[in-house]
Amino acid sequence: MQRALNYDLTPALSVPLRFFLSALIFALLASLLLLWAGPQALSSRWTPAVLAMTHLWLLGCFTLTIIGALFQLFPVVGGRSLPGGNLYANTILACISAGALLLALAFLSGTRQLFPMAAVTAGGGLTLFLLGCLHALASPRPPLPEGAKPMFRTLALALCFLSFALLSGVVNAMLRSGSLATHQWLSSIAWLAPGALTDAHAVLGLLGWIAMMIMAVAPQVIPMFQATEPYPYRSEWRLPILFALVLLSWLLCALLPAFSWIRQTAVAAILLACLAFALLTLKTLKTRKRAEPDGTTGFWQAAMAFLILACFSWMAADTPLLAGVLLAGAAFSAINGMLYQIVPFLIWLHAHHQAKQRRPIMPKMRDIIPLRQARRQCGLHIAALALLAGATLYPAYLARPAALAMLASVLWLCANLWRALRIYRAALQSLQ
User: Fold this and answer.
1) Do 4 and 56 meet the contact criterion of CB atoms below 8 Å apart?
2) DSSP per residue over 15-71, as a string?
3) What number of other Cβ atoms are within 10 A of residue 236's Cβ?
4) How high is the pLDDT of residue 3?
5) Angle, nearest 10°, between helix axes 149-176 and 233-255?
6) Residue-number span of the structural domain to which 386 is assigned
7) Per-residue pLDDT tens over the stretch 225-277
8) For site-directed labelling of 191, which of 9, 157, 333, 337 has its Cα 20 to 30 A away?
9) Considering its fold, how many domains does the chain have in total?
């Protein structure tokens, strides 16, 4: 697989970095919001602060990070670039960022007129992104490398779930806006279960889009950057297919009251698929060929641990807010770890590409961000997520400490990435 990577088509460094840095701004905003709102924010999963933070994290932070990574993965792994260049990337970034901010403001202020505005801006950006991905995936040339096919098949499934999450999100936004036409349209659908669209939007966004994307990317980036044995080839494709089927089964049960009797079976199947992926990933991480773990190993281990805890939390008790925080913690742990892998690699790659025949003055790729800094930030990151999970049970004592810890962790990550960018600039200056 790695021998098939095509670095000639890699986009400008600024393209993925603008998404990554914008995503971290949303992580900071979500942490500040929890610090401002305090314990009352976590009294229920339906409070305006929780709904605002959820969209700042999932739409503003997680989705922007994934889109930035896909601008790099499509050409390098698949040999196909997303269309449109800088204008296309900037339009997507501006629309999704504006939509996430408008949604957060709409939930916090209760201003109904902001919901359709958020739906149009965020929905337009995501639709533009989905069309670009469809164009790249449907292109027959060049043929995908054999080793890349499982990743792009899983990616296609994740994009389908993103489309469903987008559609349900737009309808929910129109309902909150008090649109009479939307109410009349939904009332005509007699078979739709009450509250089904809200549940479907949340599950499809977090599991169908975010978790499925992690399933697509992990078998590529973990063996490459962690020096492990590859994932079993069949599991790279069969496990996501199984996961997609059980998600669709759950969606059928959620939307149609007549099928509610098999809902618990579908939930159990979803949790078993998540557990299987987490255990397979932990088993793969144990095959590392390097004696000393690098700064990102802990993030992947933490991500799988939080995923396992989320599954047991969902099965053991009716604590949807705790399960949601643990699932989001698993996603953010994986994203945090991937930023420590992807950003130094891109900086090293672009520095040598700019150098052409000359050798730039810069440290080794693994030293662009010192290992001790990544490990220390990993420890703070895990502590912040543990506090946040505890705050769902004891908000009066842990809500603001969790917000402060998460704020410090994200700021530390920003500082480490900024240091890496300074090294890149110094390397370019050495060539002049």
Assistant:
1) no
2) HHHHHHHHHHHHHHHHHHHHHHHGGGGGS-TTSHHHHHHHHIIIIIIIIHHHHHHHH
3) 22
4) 44
5) 20
6) 288-432
7) 888 999 987 788 889 999 999 999 888 887 776 666 677 888 889 999 999 99
8) 157
9) 2
Alpha-carbon distances of 221 from 1, 79, 157, 192, 229, rounded to whole Å: 11, 17, 19, 40, 12
Structure tokens at 105: 């403001």
Query: What is the identity of the amino acid at 268?
Result: A
The pTM assigned to this predicted structure is 0.93
Token readout for 78 is: 């698949």
Instruction: Answer with the one of 108, 143, 178 that is the final residue of a domain.
Output: 143
Q: At what angle do helices 14-37 and 320-355 cross, to 10 degrees?
A: 150
Cα three-residue angle 270-275-280, rounded to 5 degrees: 130
Q: Which of 217, 221, 175 is nearest to 196 (CA)?
A: 175
Six-digit token string for 428: 């370019």
Q: Is residue 177 part of a domain?
A: no
- Is the separation of the CB atoms in 122 and 99 below 8 Å? yes
Q: Is 38 left (phi over 0), alpha (psi -120 to 50) or beta?
A: left
Q: Is residue 305 part of a domain?
A: yes
> What residues have CB less than 8 Å from 412, skipping those under 6 apart?
373, 376, 377, 380
What's the confidence (pLDDT) of residue 2?
A: 47
Q: Do 342 and 16 touch, CB atoms closer than 8 A?
A: yes
Query: What distance in Å separates the CA atoms of residue 197 and residue 173, rounded to the nearest whole number?
Result: 11
**Separation of alpha carbons 259 and 40, rounded Å:** 36
Q: Is 122 exposed, middle or buried (0-12, 13-18, 19+ CB in 10 A)?
A: buried
| Final residue in a domain of this structure, among 121, 143, 165 | 143
CA nearest neighbour of 203 among 143, 252, 272, 133? 252
